[in-house]
Amino acid sequence: MGTGWLSVPQDWIASFGDIAKFAARLFRDIFTLRVFRFFGEALRQAGILILGSALVIWGLAFILGLQCGIEGAYFNRSVGAPAYAGVFSAWCDLREIMPYAFGYMMSAKVGTGLVAEIGAMRISDEIDALEVMGINSLVYLCATRLLAAWMVLPFMYIAAVGAGFFASYLAVVQQIGEVSSGGFFLIFWMFQNPPDLFYSLIKGMAMATVIVIVGCYYGYTAGGGPVGVGTATAKSMVLNTVMVHLVGMVGTQIFWGSNPRAPIGG
Prior knowledge:
Blueprint: H1 2-31, H2 39-78, H3 85-123, H4 126-132, H5 137-176, H6 181-190, H7 194-220, H8 225-257
Helix pairs in contact: 1-5, 2-3, 2-5, 3-5, 3-6, 3-7, 3-8, 5-7, 7-8
């Protein structure tokens, strides 16, 4: 009985250790520039990320920006401070909603896609064929994808933040009309600064890095035929969803926990 209770946490800890070792190998391959042997493949993966995921991520960011703007405007109207609707748009969009939207979409689309693609290669012996040809499969398949994510995703993330801000402006100023454009932007820019954007970018990229590593790990280590690939895809989605919230919580605590940088009071 006792052994059964302990086996699940032991499996989790063992998996965490395996993923950490896998991540260390990927970082080593990138920072020792070994991955640049296959820079063309990294560029190809970057192109796939841009064409396949950019519009989806920006569309989700736009919709959530609308929600932040609408809720902020009506909440501030209810407490008698409609002019301060920009506070919600500045904080809700930049600090929390955009990193989480980015993480959710990366988990659902990019992470599971990596598991399915690399896992299919594993069970059809394509990875073994690469090794037989003398190609380091870990570098070619996984390190190139992580490098592609680092090259492309910062720009996609900043564009997503811009889409969210634009949507909040449309909701508050054009749709609801509680505050003028100048009044909205006065409060909007007062409650954020360049370091906030940088911290938000760090949160988003930390989530993206974890998601790509987890996706590559579960795809690279998949086994048991098509059913095994499906199981690995589900596991990666669950772990990535948890890790997105963990990274988001830790990031908020580190960057804004001790000092929210709110220009309120004396």
